[in-house]
Amino acid sequence: MAAAVALGPGASGRLQAGVARLVAVCSARLGPGSRPPGSLAGRQVGPAVWAQGWAPAARGPGPRRGYSSEVKAEDELRVRHLEEENRGIVVLGINRAYGKNSFSKNLIKMLSKAVDALKSDKKVRTVIIRSEVPGIFCAGADLKERAKMNSSEVGPFVSKVRAVINDIANLPVPTIAAIDGLALGGGLELALACDIRVAASSAKMGLVETKLAIIPGGGGTQRLPRAIGVSLAKELIFSARVLDGQEAKAVGLISHVLEQNQEGDAAYRKALDLAREFLPQGPVAMRVAKLAINQGMEVDLVTGLAIEEACYAQTIPTKDRLEGLLAFKEKRPPRYKGE
To answer: Per the record, what is one GO cellular component (predicted)?
Structure first.
Protein backbone atom coordinates (compact mmCIF):
# COMPACT_ATOMS: atom_id res chain seq x y z
CA MET A 1 0.00 0.00 0.00
CA ALA A 2 1.11 3.56 -0.56
CA ALA A 3 2.51 4.88 2.70
CA ALA A 4 1.79 8.35 4.05
CA VAL A 5 4.65 10.77 3.42
CA ALA A 6 5.44 13.93 5.39
CA LEU A 7 5.68 16.73 2.89
CA GLY A 8 7.96 19.72 3.10
CA PRO A 9 7.41 23.18 1.58
CA GLY A 10 6.59 22.94 -2.12
CA ALA A 11 6.27 19.17 -2.03
CA SER A 12 2.49 19.24 -2.27
CA GLY A 13 2.69 21.03 -5.59
CA ARG A 14 5.20 18.51 -6.90
CA LEU A 15 2.92 15.68 -5.79
CA GLN A 16 -0.03 17.19 -7.64
CA ALA A 17 2.09 17.71 -10.73
CA GLY A 18 3.36 14.13 -10.50
CA VAL A 19 -0.15 12.72 -10.20
CA ALA A 20 -1.44 14.82 -13.09
CA ARG A 21 1.46 13.73 -15.26
CA LEU A 22 0.97 10.11 -14.27
CA VAL A 23 -2.69 10.10 -15.32
CA ALA A 24 -1.69 11.36 -18.76
CA VAL A 25 1.17 8.86 -18.97
CA CYS A 26 -1.07 5.96 -17.92
CA SER A 27 -3.56 6.77 -20.65
CA ALA A 28 -0.80 6.95 -23.25
CA ARG A 29 1.30 3.95 -22.21
CA LEU A 30 -1.00 1.32 -20.80
CA GLY A 31 -2.35 0.74 -24.29
CA PRO A 32 -5.40 1.64 -26.39
CA GLY A 33 -8.63 1.38 -24.46
CA SER A 34 -7.02 2.15 -21.09
CA ARG A 35 -8.72 4.67 -18.85
CA PRO A 36 -7.82 6.74 -15.77
CA PRO A 37 -8.28 5.30 -12.22
CA GLY A 38 -11.77 3.93 -11.62
CA SER A 39 -12.17 2.25 -14.99
CA LEU A 40 -9.21 0.16 -16.03
CA ALA A 41 -11.02 -2.44 -18.06
CA GLY A 42 -10.67 -0.94 -21.51
CA ARG A 43 -11.94 -2.45 -24.70
CA GLN A 44 -10.39 -5.75 -25.65
CA VAL A 45 -8.45 -5.91 -28.88
CA GLY A 46 -7.99 -9.26 -30.58
CA PRO A 47 -4.49 -10.63 -31.00
CA ALA A 48 -2.69 -10.13 -34.26
CA VAL A 49 -0.49 -12.79 -35.79
CA TRP A 50 2.16 -11.37 -38.12
CA ALA A 51 4.32 -14.32 -39.00
CA GLN A 52 4.01 -18.07 -39.18
CA GLY A 53 6.34 -21.02 -39.45
CA TRP A 54 6.87 -21.94 -35.78
CA ALA A 55 5.90 -25.11 -33.98
CA PRO A 56 4.07 -24.75 -30.63
CA ALA A 57 6.37 -24.13 -27.70
CA ALA A 58 7.38 -27.01 -25.50
CA ARG A 59 9.85 -27.58 -22.75
CA GLY A 60 13.12 -29.13 -23.76
CA PRO A 61 14.97 -28.67 -27.06
CA GLY A 62 13.31 -26.27 -29.47
CA PRO A 63 12.46 -26.94 -33.12
CA ARG A 64 15.30 -27.48 -35.52
CA ARG A 65 16.16 -24.34 -37.45
CA GLY A 66 17.51 -23.96 -40.93
CA TYR A 67 19.71 -21.05 -42.00
CA SER A 68 19.63 -20.33 -45.69
CA SER A 69 21.62 -17.51 -47.19
CA GLU A 70 18.42 -16.54 -48.99
CA VAL A 71 15.65 -15.54 -46.56
CA LYS A 72 12.40 -14.04 -47.74
CA ALA A 73 11.83 -10.49 -46.55
CA GLU A 74 8.75 -11.52 -44.59
CA ASP A 75 10.81 -14.12 -42.69
CA GLU A 76 13.42 -11.66 -41.40
CA LEU A 77 11.37 -11.29 -38.22
CA ARG A 78 9.47 -14.28 -36.88
CA VAL A 79 6.75 -13.61 -34.32
CA ARG A 80 5.63 -16.55 -32.23
CA HIS A 81 2.75 -16.58 -29.74
CA LEU A 82 3.50 -19.43 -27.36
CA GLU A 83 0.75 -21.76 -26.25
CA GLU A 84 -0.26 -24.11 -23.44
CA GLU A 85 1.67 -23.39 -20.21
CA ASN A 86 3.53 -20.59 -22.01
CA ARG A 87 0.41 -18.79 -23.21
CA GLY A 88 0.92 -15.03 -23.03
CA ILE A 89 4.61 -15.15 -23.96
CA VAL A 90 5.47 -13.68 -27.37
CA VAL A 91 8.86 -14.29 -28.99
CA LEU A 92 10.30 -11.93 -31.59
CA GLY A 93 12.98 -13.85 -33.47
CA ILE A 94 15.38 -11.95 -35.76
CA ASN A 95 16.33 -14.05 -38.78
CA ARG A 96 18.75 -12.27 -41.15
CA ALA A 97 21.66 -14.71 -41.19
CA TYR A 98 23.14 -13.27 -44.38
CA GLY A 99 23.19 -9.80 -42.79
CA LYS A 100 24.23 -10.88 -39.27
CA ASN A 101 20.77 -9.78 -38.10
CA SER A 102 21.68 -6.17 -38.84
CA PHE A 103 19.03 -3.46 -39.05
CA SER A 104 17.86 -3.14 -42.64
CA LYS A 105 14.98 -0.97 -43.78
CA ASN A 106 12.83 -4.07 -44.10
CA LEU A 107 13.70 -5.44 -40.65
CA ILE A 108 12.96 -2.09 -39.00
CA LYS A 109 9.65 -1.94 -40.85
CA MET A 110 8.75 -5.42 -39.63
CA LEU A 111 9.80 -4.66 -36.06
CA SER A 112 7.69 -1.50 -36.11
CA LYS A 113 4.65 -3.41 -37.35
CA ALA A 114 5.08 -6.17 -34.77
CA VAL A 115 5.57 -3.77 -31.86
CA ASP A 116 2.54 -1.70 -32.89
CA ALA A 117 0.41 -4.84 -32.73
CA LEU A 118 1.86 -5.89 -29.38
CA LYS A 119 0.91 -2.55 -27.83
CA SER A 120 -2.79 -3.26 -28.28
CA ASP A 121 -2.85 -7.00 -27.63
CA LYS A 122 -4.12 -7.42 -24.08
CA LYS A 123 -3.34 -11.15 -24.14
CA VAL A 124 0.40 -10.51 -24.29
CA ARG A 125 2.06 -10.90 -20.89
CA THR A 126 5.80 -10.93 -21.69
CA VAL A 127 7.88 -10.34 -24.83
CA ILE A 128 11.20 -12.07 -25.51
CA ILE A 129 13.54 -10.75 -28.20
CA ARG A 130 15.99 -13.33 -29.49
CA SER A 131 17.95 -14.36 -32.57
CA GLU A 132 17.17 -17.20 -34.92
CA VAL A 133 20.76 -17.17 -36.15
CA PRO A 134 23.47 -19.07 -34.22
CA GLY A 135 26.16 -16.86 -32.69
CA ILE A 136 24.49 -13.54 -33.58
CA PHE A 137 21.97 -11.48 -31.64
CA CYS A 138 22.14 -8.32 -33.76
CA ALA A 139 25.18 -6.70 -35.36
CA GLY A 140 23.64 -3.22 -35.43
CA ALA A 141 23.19 -1.25 -38.62
CA ASP A 142 23.33 -2.90 -42.03
CA LEU A 143 26.44 -1.05 -43.18
CA LYS A 144 26.19 -2.37 -46.74
CA GLU A 145 22.73 -0.88 -47.06
CA ARG A 146 23.84 2.25 -45.21
CA ALA A 147 26.71 2.79 -47.67
CA LYS A 148 24.15 3.05 -50.49
CA MET A 149 22.20 5.82 -48.74
CA ASN A 150 22.94 9.44 -49.42
CA SER A 151 23.48 11.80 -46.50
CA SER A 152 19.88 13.03 -46.54
CA GLU A 153 18.59 9.48 -46.05
CA VAL A 154 20.79 8.48 -43.11
CA GLY A 155 19.29 10.83 -40.51
CA PRO A 156 15.65 9.86 -41.10
CA PHE A 157 16.54 6.15 -41.10
CA VAL A 158 18.41 6.41 -37.80
CA SER A 159 15.44 8.33 -36.40
CA LYS A 160 13.18 5.46 -37.41
CA VAL A 161 15.48 2.94 -35.72
CA ARG A 162 15.49 5.09 -32.58
CA ALA A 163 11.69 5.34 -32.65
CA VAL A 164 11.25 1.57 -32.96
CA ILE A 165 13.67 0.92 -30.10
CA ASN A 166 11.82 3.51 -28.00
CA ASP A 167 8.54 1.76 -28.77
CA ILE A 168 10.04 -1.50 -27.52
CA ALA A 169 11.20 0.24 -24.35
CA ASN A 170 7.68 1.59 -23.83
CA LEU A 171 5.82 -1.68 -24.31
CA PRO A 172 3.48 -2.02 -21.32
CA VAL A 173 4.58 -5.59 -20.51
CA PRO A 174 7.92 -7.02 -19.34
CA THR A 175 10.48 -7.47 -22.10
CA ILE A 176 13.53 -9.75 -22.06
CA ALA A 177 16.51 -9.72 -24.42
CA ALA A 178 18.07 -13.17 -24.88
CA ILE A 179 21.63 -12.51 -26.08
CA ASP A 180 23.08 -15.77 -27.36
CA GLY A 181 25.68 -14.17 -29.61
CA LEU A 182 27.09 -10.93 -30.96
CA ALA A 183 25.23 -7.74 -29.91
CA LEU A 184 27.04 -4.69 -31.26
CA GLY A 185 25.97 -1.08 -31.76
CA GLY A 186 22.27 -1.00 -32.47
CA GLY A 187 22.02 -4.63 -31.41
CA LEU A 188 23.06 -3.73 -27.88
CA GLU A 189 20.82 -0.67 -28.00
CA LEU A 190 17.92 -2.98 -28.82
CA ALA A 191 18.82 -5.13 -25.81
CA LEU A 192 19.19 -2.04 -23.59
CA ALA A 193 15.60 -1.10 -24.40
CA CYS A 194 14.41 -4.35 -22.79
CA ASP A 195 13.60 -4.54 -19.10
CA ILE A 196 15.85 -7.55 -18.52
CA ARG A 197 18.90 -8.84 -20.38
CA VAL A 198 20.32 -12.34 -20.17
CA ALA A 199 23.34 -13.57 -22.12
CA ALA A 200 25.51 -16.58 -22.76
CA SER A 201 29.05 -16.29 -21.40
CA SER A 202 30.33 -16.53 -24.98
CA ALA A 203 28.22 -13.58 -26.16
CA LYS A 204 29.97 -10.35 -27.19
CA MET A 205 28.41 -6.94 -26.72
CA GLY A 206 29.40 -3.32 -26.99
CA LEU A 207 28.60 0.12 -28.38
CA VAL A 208 31.29 0.36 -31.04
CA GLU A 209 30.05 3.31 -33.09
CA THR A 210 32.99 5.59 -32.33
CA LYS A 211 35.14 3.24 -34.42
CA LEU A 212 33.08 4.43 -37.40
CA ALA A 213 33.37 8.10 -36.40
CA ILE A 214 29.73 8.25 -35.26
CA ILE A 215 28.00 7.82 -31.90
CA PRO A 216 25.29 5.42 -30.72
CA GLY A 217 22.06 6.68 -32.29
CA GLY A 218 19.44 4.24 -30.97
CA GLY A 219 19.41 5.39 -27.38
CA GLY A 220 22.77 3.98 -26.32
CA THR A 221 24.21 7.23 -24.97
CA GLN A 222 21.20 7.51 -22.65
CA ARG A 223 20.33 3.94 -21.67
CA LEU A 224 23.83 2.59 -21.09
CA PRO A 225 24.67 5.22 -18.42
CA ARG A 226 21.35 4.53 -16.74
CA ALA A 227 22.14 0.81 -16.72
CA ILE A 228 25.77 0.79 -15.53
CA GLY A 229 26.60 4.34 -14.43
CA VAL A 230 27.89 7.41 -16.24
CA SER A 231 31.64 6.98 -15.85
CA LEU A 232 31.80 3.35 -16.97
CA ALA A 233 29.37 3.99 -19.84
CA LYS A 234 31.61 6.80 -21.09
CA GLU A 235 34.63 4.51 -20.88
CA LEU A 236 32.95 1.78 -22.89
CA ILE A 237 31.61 4.16 -25.55
CA PHE A 238 34.86 6.14 -25.84
CA SER A 239 36.89 2.94 -26.22
CA ALA A 240 34.32 1.01 -28.32
CA ARG A 241 35.16 -1.88 -26.02
CA VAL A 242 33.42 -5.24 -26.47
CA LEU A 243 32.53 -7.29 -23.38
CA ASP A 244 31.80 -10.99 -23.08
CA GLY A 245 28.92 -12.31 -21.00
CA GLN A 246 30.87 -12.61 -17.76
CA GLU A 247 32.26 -9.08 -18.09
CA ALA A 248 28.81 -7.72 -18.92
CA LYS A 249 27.37 -9.39 -15.81
CA ALA A 250 30.18 -7.98 -13.66
CA VAL A 251 29.36 -4.37 -14.66
CA GLY A 252 25.60 -4.83 -14.36
CA LEU A 253 24.84 -4.70 -18.06
CA ILE A 254 22.98 -8.02 -17.91
CA SER A 255 21.06 -9.77 -15.13
CA HIS A 256 22.06 -13.38 -15.82
CA VAL A 257 24.94 -15.09 -17.61
CA LEU A 258 24.82 -18.74 -18.70
CA GLU A 259 27.31 -21.18 -20.15
CA GLN A 260 26.32 -21.73 -23.76
CA ASN A 261 24.66 -25.07 -24.50
CA GLN A 262 25.01 -27.37 -27.49
CA GLU A 263 21.94 -25.90 -29.18
CA GLY A 264 23.28 -22.35 -28.83
CA ASP A 265 20.18 -21.02 -27.07
CA ALA A 266 21.13 -20.91 -23.38
CA ALA A 267 20.11 -17.26 -22.96
CA TYR A 268 16.79 -17.87 -24.69
CA ARG A 269 16.00 -20.78 -22.37
CA LYS A 270 16.78 -18.63 -19.35
CA ALA A 271 14.55 -15.89 -20.77
CA LEU A 272 11.74 -18.43 -21.09
CA ASP A 273 12.21 -19.47 -17.47
CA LEU A 274 11.96 -15.84 -16.36
CA ALA A 275 8.90 -15.22 -18.52
CA ARG A 276 7.19 -18.25 -16.97
CA GLU A 277 7.80 -16.74 -13.53
CA PHE A 278 5.97 -13.59 -14.66
CA LEU A 279 2.91 -15.36 -16.09
CA PRO A 280 1.02 -16.11 -12.82
CA GLN A 281 1.03 -12.48 -11.69
CA GLY A 282 -1.82 -10.00 -12.18
CA PRO A 283 -1.61 -8.50 -15.70
CA VAL A 284 -2.78 -5.02 -14.70
CA ALA A 285 -0.38 -4.99 -11.76
CA MET A 286 2.50 -5.96 -14.03
CA ARG A 287 1.73 -3.13 -16.43
CA VAL A 288 1.44 -0.43 -13.80
CA ALA A 289 4.46 -1.74 -11.87
CA LYS A 290 6.57 -1.30 -14.99
CA LEU A 291 5.12 2.14 -15.55
CA ALA A 292 5.77 3.20 -11.96
CA ILE A 293 9.38 2.04 -12.10
CA ASN A 294 10.14 3.57 -15.49
CA GLN A 295 8.57 6.93 -14.69
CA GLY A 296 9.88 7.03 -11.13
CA MET A 297 13.48 6.60 -12.24
CA GLU A 298 13.28 9.86 -14.20
CA VAL A 299 12.11 12.12 -11.37
CA ASP A 300 12.92 13.05 -7.74
CA LEU A 301 11.81 10.77 -4.91
CA VAL A 302 8.81 12.87 -3.84
CA THR A 303 7.39 12.88 -7.36
CA GLY A 304 8.28 9.21 -7.71
CA LEU A 305 6.23 8.38 -4.62
CA ALA A 306 3.31 10.29 -6.13
CA ILE A 307 3.67 8.25 -9.30
CA GLU A 308 3.65 5.05 -7.25
CA GLU A 309 0.50 6.20 -5.43
CA ALA A 310 -1.27 6.98 -8.71
CA CYS A 311 -0.21 3.62 -10.15
CA TYR A 312 -1.41 1.78 -7.05
CA ALA A 313 -4.77 3.49 -7.47
CA GLN A 314 -5.01 1.89 -10.91
CA THR A 315 -5.13 -1.58 -9.31
CA ILE A 316 -7.75 -0.91 -6.60
CA PRO A 317 -10.95 -1.07 -8.74
CA THR A 318 -9.86 -4.13 -10.73
CA LYS A 319 -11.55 -7.53 -10.67
CA ASP A 320 -8.09 -9.09 -10.51
CA ARG A 321 -7.40 -7.51 -7.11
CA LEU A 322 -10.60 -9.02 -5.68
CA GLU A 323 -9.75 -12.36 -7.27
CA GLY A 324 -6.31 -12.26 -5.67
CA LEU A 325 -7.84 -11.72 -2.22
CA LEU A 326 -10.41 -14.46 -2.76
CA ALA A 327 -7.78 -16.91 -4.02
CA PHE A 328 -5.63 -16.18 -0.96
CA LYS A 329 -8.60 -16.78 1.33
CA GLU A 330 -9.52 -20.03 -0.45
CA LYS A 331 -5.87 -21.17 -0.63
CA ARG A 332 -5.90 -21.70 -4.40
CA PRO A 333 -4.03 -20.23 -7.38
CA PRO A 334 -5.66 -17.00 -8.61
CA ARG A 335 -7.33 -16.89 -12.02
CA TYR A 336 -6.50 -13.44 -13.31
CA LYS A 337 -8.13 -12.02 -16.45
CA GLY A 338 -6.43 -8.65 -16.74
CA GLU A 339 -9.60 -6.80 -15.69
So the answer is: mitochondrion
Mean pLDDT of 36-61: 33
| Residue 237 domain flag | yes
Q: Is residue 296 part of a domain?
A: no
Question: What's the pLDDT score for residue 47?
Answer: 31
Active-site residue flag, 277: no
Tell me which residue range forms the domain holding 96: 73-278
* Number of domains the chain contains: 1
Q: What is the CATH number of the domain that holds 183?
A: 3.90.226.10
Report the first-to-last Cα separation within the chain, whole angstroms: 20
Catalytic hit among 76, 209, 308, 309:
209
Amino acid at 165: I
Residue 209 annotated as catalytic: yes
Catalytic-labelled residue, pool 132, 189, 308, 309: 189
Which residues partner with 206 through β-bridges? 184
Q: Is there a catalytic annotation at residue 97?
A: no
Alpha carbon distance 25, 141 (integer Å): 31
Is 261 inside any structural domain?
Answer: yes
Among the options 57, 139, 141, 275, which is catalytic?
Answer: 141
Per residue in 196-255, pLDDT (tens digit) is 999 999 999 999 999 999 999 999 999 999 999 999 999 999 999 999 999 999 999 999
Whether the full predicted model's pTM is greater than 0.85, yes or no, is: no
Q: Which of 186, 187, 217, 218 is catalytic?
A: 186
Of 184 and 338, the structure prediction assigns the larger pLDDT to: 184
**For this structure, is 338 an active site residue?**
no
